[in-house]
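Entry:
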Amino acid sequence: MLDCSGTPGGWSVSGFDRDHFAEHQVNTVFEGIKPPFEGIEAHIRSCTQMGIQRHICADADNHRCRRDNFVYRQNDVTFTSPSYRIARYYLEHMTFRERALRRPQSLWLRKALFQIHLWTGIAIGLYVVVSSVSGSAIVFRNELYKSLWPGPKIVAISGPRLSRDGLKRAVRQAWPHYSVTYIWESKRKDEATEVWIEHDGEAKPKTVGRLVDPFTGRDLGPSRPVSIGVLAWLSNLHTDLLAGNTGRKVNGVLAILVIVLSITGFLVWWPGTGRVRRSLTIDFRSNWKRLNWDLHSVIGFWMFAFVFIWGVTGVFLVFPKPFQIVVNHFSPLQLYGLQSSLEAPAQAPAANNNDITAQIVPVADQNSAPPVRRRRRPPRGSNGDVFLRWFYYLHFGNFGDWESKAAWVLLGLAPPFLFVTGALMWWNRVLSREARTSRRQRSLVAGEERAASKLARVAS
């Protein structure tokens, strides 16, 4: 071992012999650290005369770096600094702003944000996968509904049409444990009638649609194809998590955690000034662990704005009232306003501001002539209404043509990819390390047991 300990902050090098030192190029690197006095610079120059490559490890994510000592390994050579306290002196005397901009890895706040990001991702990872995949699947739901809908079911006219009671009796015979809740009368005589039925004895029965021959009462099958049923199921999964109003509220709470996940991910990503370009590139020649890290870091950075927008708009779709109150303060809402904020009719009693009630407003006299139908322009509303309308556009991607929707489908599949890469990083850092430690401990215990058994046999 050779050392350069004659001056403050001496370096020691192990792994090479003396004759091999001169073959290496001198390269002194103090990343993110500006020496406050010239003594250390003079010491560096005196040490570099030996032709040794010296580094201070600035990558806190490198598993070879130690928190209390600067260690850099390159080509099986270990460079250590016995005077690492000098470097720590520089860090300790940097302001919070300087450390946040230049060396964020040294801040306890960054470590806390990393833990929040890690465990939030583990907690809602499966939710992110389900919500993202189902959301991408239903982006084109309106277009799919139109293309998959087979059209009206045509039947042969075989006599007079059955009355409503006759249809109910026919459906009751075909479905004895179901009750008819609604009958959709067809406009055409040769078109099948759609009937909604619900199972008896259930607190929250599921509505089932069936097609019935209006002349014979014969059941003609489900009112919608299986493909449209699958789309409706995916829409229910994405919106209500298949749990009705309770599932929708849970969906809104989990969307808040998605916002937390995106913000903490962006703050943890910040590498410090001078290293941004490296953090925006992917090195496909590196080993798979480093490649996995680059993919998670780079894709997470470019997806930050989209995930944040989807989280905020998702919260709005579940809990719109806080957003409406804030927006209404700056621009009075006309289309998306709360009912309590609208002026109540004169004959109605004053309602509580916290109550949101529906009001029936007469729009025409019963004896008046039917109005002439005209093509209505879509209501624009106030600037606040336009602002909230864009929440729907940005969440579902229907602000443009099919190109924007296709982009939303592809971008919606990125969060599951981030979950997979993040889970692999967690496995490499935590689970695999613990597994190796436990295997090492078990092997040591097994070796001690074998040695004890051999000593026992020798003693006997």
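The longest helix spans residues 414-459.
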